[in-house]
Amino acid sequence: MKIVKWFEDWVVIASFMVIVLVTFVNVVSRYTFQASLAFSEEITINLLVVLTMMGAVVGIRLGAHLGFTYLVENAKPKIRRSLIIIGAALMIVFLAVLLIWGSEMMVHQAIRGRATPSLGIPQWLFTLSIPMAGLLGIVRTLQAARVSLHEDTSAEAVAERLAQEAAPVIDDAELLSRSVHKADANHTTDSQGGRK
Fold this sequence. Notes:
This protein is mainly alpha-helical. Helices cover 78% and strands 0% of the residues. The chain contains eight helices and no strands. α1 runs antiparallel to α2 (40-62), α2 packs parallel to α6 (129-149) and α4 (77-112) packs antiparallel against α6 (129-149).
């Protein structure tokens, strides 16, 4: 699954980088040379679809989508289990629709030879992100549901998890570095006749 995680991350990163680069070059071209790049809009729009679809998968993997966690975390164990299963089932149904209809749309585009207007890139290459996001989303939803079903939901465990998420993570090396810098700053102030 490590390679799948790497793939998901890099599709999102690469799509975003290309969108930023193409948009920047188009703006510079428009204001410097008074000429807009004809292909920039089609690249930006198509890559925005890719970015959105794969970004949603990454969001499922990281648990970053909005949800009614208060209801789930404070429900009794049997109700909590039912809510998690129902939520995962509804997500899987939606993602299955993306997988099936996205695949049909991609196949029809490939059969018809549909291409982007300016660059002539086969349109199915961009549409591939829709069924791929459906498939990867189903896998990530099942993983997230499995983790949620085995998670401790006692008040203490929930409070500890929320505190860990809210608190900044400082490792031992950073803590030592901060204390050394603070000691150096105090020593410099003291040697210059400052307060002790």
